[in-house]
Amino acid sequence: MFTGLVEEKGEVLSFHKEADGWRLKVKAHVVPEGVQLGESIAVNGCCLSAISVSQYGVEFDVLEETRRLTNLKNVDFGSSVNLERSLRFDGRVGGHFLTGHVDGEGEIVELQSKGADVLLRIKAPEAFARYLVYKGCVAIDGISLTVAEVDGPVLSIWLIPHTLAVTTLGERSPGDSVNMEFDLLAKYTENILAQQDR
């Protein structure tokens, strides 16, 4: 489980295919601290298991399915990725509950300043548009954000300067792909109600 509060931007050192699958190596300074082998780390919102940890970074095995269904397929040497260690229950919990299981990719349709603020508009996959609600939660590349407006599959989000500075959103442009995870409670509620209707 994660909160969507990104701890740092990591830098991709390598992402290549080996005999036994894809291997991702990320340079990081904060996230490796206290992480044990096999523990989960969210990389652009994707829950990955650490297979090697040092003071300089973390390595992960990446399933072909994960690569195919997320924007990790677009990262290469020097790319920035959002990193978050898994949730601990011995402190404050900000953001919202995330699993790190990406539902699909969205596309940035607008990212621009509106006065002192920055507006981000994303077109979500049509199949998940029903989970978008005004003032609801959504995770974009593992970042917990609040939906400000919904127009069909397009959602609008207002970004604070801190989010732009400490996450990869400050490096994004219209047309870029983003990983999206929709509200877990909404998905479970939908499933339970569907079972009752049978």
Any guess at the CATH architecture of the largest domain?
Beta Barrel
Mean pLDDT: 94
Radius of gyration: 17 Å
Q: Give the class-level CATH name of the largest domain.
A: Mainly Beta
Instruction: Report the total helices.
Output: 3
**How much helix is in the residues?**
10-25%
Classification by helices and strands: mainly beta
- Count all strands and give the number: 13
Q: What is the H/E order?
A: EEEEEHEEEEEEEHEH
Approximate shape? globular
Could you characterize the architecture of this molecule?
The protein is mainly beta. It has two domains: 78 residues, Beta Barrel (Elongation Factor Tu (Ef-tu), domain 3), CATH 2.40.30; 93 residues, Elongation Factor Tu (Ef-tu), domain 3 (Beta Barrel). It is built from three helices and 13 strands. A seven-stranded antiparallel β-sheet has the order 10-9-13-7-8-12-11. A hairpin with a 2-residue loop joins strand 3 and strand 4. The two termini are 31 Å apart. The model has no long low-confidence stretch (mean pLDDT 94).
What tags apply to this protein structure?
mainly beta, Elongation Factor Tu (Ef-tu), domain 3, 2 domains, seven-stranded antiparallel sheet, 13 strands
Structural topology:
Layout (H helix, E strand, L loop, with lengths): L7 E11 L2 E7 L12 E4 L2 E9 L2 E6 L1 H6 L10 E6 L18 E11 L2 E7 L13 E4 L2 E4 L2 E3 L2 E6 L1 H6 L10 E6 L1 H13 L2
Short description:
Helices cover 13% and strands 42% of the residues. With 198 residues, it is mostly beta strands. The model has no long low-confidence stretch (mean pLDDT 94).
